[in-house]
Amino acid sequence: MITANKKFRKLRPTSQKVLLLLLGGIALGLTHDPRQYFKIVKGIKKEWEWINKRNLHRVIRNLYHSRLIDTKDNSDGTTTMVLTEFGKRHALTYQIDAITISPMNKWDRKWRIVMFDVPEKHKRARDALSRSLKRMGFAQLQKSVFVHPFECSKETMFVAEFFNVRQYICHVLADHIDNEPTLKKKFNLT
Predict the structure, then answer these.
(1) Does the N-terminal or the C-terminal CB of the chain have fewer CB atoms within 10 Å?
(2) Domain identity same for 55 and 107
(3) Strands of the chain, DSSP E
């Protein structure tokens, strides 16, 4: 019977599925007993369901912590997941490639700095986050430091959540930046 050990369960769900399929193929190829075929297939099915449930639980937990969904306890003992008002607004308006930062009516003279330190093992997500911030109109101060004059925390946290790197991001609200004249010119704030 195929069972996943702890090291296997630390892999990302897609990697787990590929390894599980390969392992199942090897196991089926090595057995000649028809009863063993059914045991192997049953074991693969059980692990496949576990992988899907784990991924689903992670996604739900992230949505809940982002205040995009909430839970409602029912009288029959079940729980229903519902979109919050915040989630409804954003579910209809956010498309990851089309997110923009809305200008403020009157600039509050503060700079929003987004810094991140995403580990090398998440390089693809880190690069995608950088591209998204640039596409959203941020100015890049350093490799992983971006600045914008307008309120943008909801948008940046949504993008970070989308790429699953939220825990590596830090927001700073600053009154002054050394190269402020250049930034003001870039954002047409002169």
Answers:
(1) C
(2) no
(3) 69-73, 79-83, 111-116, 139-142, 145-148, 169-174
